[in-house]
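Side project, low priority. Logging it here so it doesn't get lost.
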Amino acid sequence: MIRLLIVDDHPVVRAGLVGLLSDEPGFEVVAEAADGAQAVRLAAATRPDVVLMDLRMPGVDGVEATARITADGAARVLILTTYESDDQILSAIEAGASGYLLKAAPQDEIVAGIRSVAAGQSALSPQVAVRLVERMRHPEPPVLTARETEVLGLVATGHSNKQIASTLGIGESTVKTHLLKVFEKLGVADRTRAVTLAMERGLLPGGRE
């Protein structure tokens, strides 16, 4: 028996899912939640196998609730929502969701998705899968803040951390923090590679347009 927690802030949608899934062989709806905070509490209390999670809810949203539930190991989470923007998809998956389906999906696709997630596999709607593949093929370039760009620009002209701190009127520790963030965003480990890659990507003046 696959134990389910249904999370949606719309009572009619929630009731519809409960009715749909309660009639499905091998499924048992053990709890319902109207927001993310309640979902986290009920997941800890009832230990369902799968949480069907909406994304946009008042207070604690679906992404944050997913992160808390999966971090606690309370259950596996399957996103079931009407939203499919790239950022929302990635945020949900990064938070630990095992799948992402749309509410408009056919009933058999939702049921199959639940069974897959309960079995330790993933479940993605065809539309979402296509978006993820395209995102991987054409990743968005990293975005540096104005201050990170200033710091890296001064590194590019040969300034030391001490000189950068003096020029910008900030502490050396702050300069180091900015550089570490730049390294993380660019996926590099040293100043030279950071400058070279930033110029290649047109993130610094004089780089490729």
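Brief comment: The chain has a mean pLDDT of 90.
Revisit when time allows.
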